[in-house]
Amino acid sequence: MKLLYLWARLACSLFATIPVSGFYLPGLAPVSFCEEDGKTSDCQNKIQLFVNRLDSVESVLPYEYDVFDFCKDEEEKRPSENLGQVLFGERIETSPYKFKFGKDVSCQKVCSKSYATSNQEDKAKLDFLKRGMELNYQHHWIVDNMPVTWCYQVEDGQQYCNPGFPIGCLVTHEGRPKDACIINAKFNKKSTYYLFNHVDITITYHSGDNENWRGARLVAARLEPQSIKHGDENSLSCEGSPMEIPVDFSTDLKVTYSYSIKFEAMCTDAARVLCSIMNSLVIVLFLSGMVAMIMLRTLHKDIARYNQVDQTCLRSIYTQALHMCVLCCPLQEDAQEESGWKQVHGDVFRPPPNGMLLAVFLGQGAQIFIMTFITLFLACLGFLSPANRGALMTCAVVLWVLLGTPAGYISARIYKSFGGEKWKTNVFLTALLCPGIVFADFFLMNLILWVEGSSAAIPFGTLLAILALWFGISVPLTFVGAFFGFKKPVMEHPVRTNQIPRQIPEQSFFTRPVPGIVMGGILPFGCIFIQLFFILNSIWSHQMYYMFGFLFLVFIILLITCSEATILLCYFHLCAEDYHWWWRSFLTSGFTAVYLLIYAVHYFFSKLQIQGAASTILYFGYTMIMVLIFFLFTGTIGFFACFWFVNKIYSVVKVD
Fold first, then answer.
1. Closest to 469 measured CA to CA, from 375, 399, 369
2. Can you spell out the DSSP letters for 158-180?
3. I want to staple 344 with a disulfide (CB 3.0 to 4.6 A). Which of 218, 278, 389, 579 is the partner?
4. What is the band of 470 on the pLDDT scale with cuts at 50, 70, 90?
5. Which of 549, 525, 530 shows the shortest CA–CA distance to 634?
6. Gap between the Cα atoms of 430 and 356, Å rounded
7. Per residue in 121-158, pLDDT tens?
8. How far is 58 from 611, CA to CA, in rounded Å?
9. Which residues form the signal peptide (predicted)?
10. Alpha carbon of residue 144 to chain centroid
């Protein structure tokens, strides 16, 4: 293991020293900025800051920027949103923060807000703002399609950067500072909210003077939120005591929002390859190779022994008397008892119970598998970059809709091989069962978002568009695939099925169905464990996920380990003369989804601080959708791997 670790470190160091050059994909070309006034085809001067929805790690309910009483752009514009952005609840709009490239500004007023105690509307706005600070709602600002990050010091002097910053913070009635209030000793007054009404923005750019392009390109945008009680709003100094908002709103209040901005030039260094995940991937590959090697060597010995015995018996018939063959046949029976998977050749392809349901799951699983492969492959190439917001979800939904044909075809082929005759029911279930469960769950979660007034609620028109895609494109394509699947002749198996089922001998603990299924999901889950943490962070902790290259590699390794684990356990059960492998092969690798659910529960209680029944229901509602999709995905991989394995071993062994 130590040698393996050294090899991984050596590979990482070699990759880090290789010089690389970048290229820009269509639609993702950078924008150049110049200090001259005006806008040309290759350079512009004005920088527009966009605002996105506000969200919190303590609540799953996001809200639009306009819901809070912040400064609004008089010429508000909303960029066109794709389907992925709508489904994720992104609501991007222009803000009143507008800058000129290269021009530093100090303590510039944006707007002022007044709250009167006698005005009930002002009181409701301020209460909502205080509720947002109590739940630690975060701004998400965007400059040149980049998130504006807030970096601060944490324990051990390390720096942590977050793609968002809080509205404000709260010091409880016990004097305990919550969330961002711990970063400033001035935030110490009990039962007081501190509003971050000022931001110091730093924009870093890379100049093109020494290269073949004009102007400069923005590299990063950082800010530091401040709480400042401004005096004269016509002459701001951005100094003084914090902007305090008492828990009890008893006096009139006036809040002035302001900002400062400065521009910094920097030199870019060659990017280094991320090696933190490489060690675990090498170890998983090593374990997978060991499992495959053991399986191949064991099978090779079994097949060689069976064929050798058959050939010996055949030669005896032609060269010796009949009693010599009688002496040979017991030898064959002894060999079969030594390794018993050949003894069940007459039952191994016997149709399973509930074969229609299995065929439906396999059709839907194949649809999800192809969709995931194409989506991750495009993301790995950079076509679905995080800079292209919502592109990943849009691509996945469109691919799922267009892949109804392989779902219907595979489901029909499998169901027909089981001897099924209710083809209409099979097609309808393939087109409606699993998508219907997902849509029903999604619709219930959306109702909760509607009731809570969250910006993540999908508009009714978008829901109708999704239904139109489902029933207008996906369902007809599923029927087309099923038509061609049922038109094909029945799949021929390498051995015939006996009329009378063979009795299965008593099984040991490890060859019983439940222990085998539970053990089968451990190794595949170990492959995705590291990446799963980053993916859940990107979904629930609102962090950007960009390591699609590693994710695609993990996807390939998950495919290999699901196949190998299922084949290995299938081989053990066949050796124990248990031929009920159809459902077991699907459930063995599909049980990885149960470990995913357990990890999601652990993540909820250990990593998140979600409060409220609505947010909890939303978290577990969306988690169940993920678990169902992952169950179909991994189960389908295991089934077809075992299906190929069983066909292969019984096709190379001579059976009387």
1. 399
2. -EEEESSEESEEEE-TTS-B-GG
3. 579
4. very high
5. 525
6. 9
7. 988 889 999 999 999 899 989 888 888 888 877 666 66
8. 5
9. 1-22
10. 25
